[in-house]
Structure to design on (200 residues):
């Protein structure tokens, strides 16, 4: 229970923080009124990182972050909501989208790649950039195709393939942007630590 609460808290804060940054700074990048789907969806990075670390424990935290974000920070009808609020349809869409990384891990597990069970969930044995990029691409395709198929069924309107492409590209670019920034910050932090150790 303690591990679940720790993983829930970390995932919620990371996903919600990236969601807030996305809503305020990145949601309008490449905006197209006819085709919804952000071209730089930053929270997908939290899906990838947290699901690789915590497994399915991360999914409830991300759904909760979607609920809090949409309920308290989004007002009126928007292109990326089904009903202009966190409705039952939006809940289903959130669960599917936030499960996309876990589903990609299951697919990779079935293909025989190096994954293992840990804390009753699928996690990476050894994280590296190739694995993370592969997981990002597969989960983005799952979210783009399956998520929009469900969105179309729930909302009873046709979704153009260009919208599916925007969702897929947005998840990939959003994750790459966050990982690039994190890598630069980690590199700068390590340089500072190394210099301070040399001075001592």
């Amino acid at each position: 229970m303690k591990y679940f609460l720790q993983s829930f808290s970390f995932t919620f804060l990371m996903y919600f923080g990236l969601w807030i940054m996305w809503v305020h700074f990145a949601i309008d990048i490449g905006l197209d009124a006819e085709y919804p789907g952000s071209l730089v969806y930053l929270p997908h990075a939290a899906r990838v990182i947290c699901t690789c670390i915590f497994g399915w424990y991360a999914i409830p935290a991300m759904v909760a972050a979607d609920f809090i974000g949409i309920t308290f920070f989004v007002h009126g009808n928007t292109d990326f909501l089904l009903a202009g609020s966190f409705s039952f349809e939006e809940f289903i869409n959130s669960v599917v989208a936030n499960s996309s990384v876990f589903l990609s891990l299951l697919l990779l597990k079935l293909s025989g790649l190096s994954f293992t069970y840990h804390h009753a969930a699928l996690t990476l044995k050894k994280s590296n950039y190739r694995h993370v990029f592969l997981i990002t691409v597969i989960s983005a395709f799952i979210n783009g195709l399956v998520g929009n198929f469900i969105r179309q069924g729930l909302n009873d309107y046709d979704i153009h393939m260009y919208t599916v492409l925007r969702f897929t590209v947005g998840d990939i670019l959003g994750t790459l942007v966050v990982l690039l920034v994190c890598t630069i910050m980690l590199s700068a932090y390590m340089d500072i630590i190394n210099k301070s150790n040399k001075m001592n």
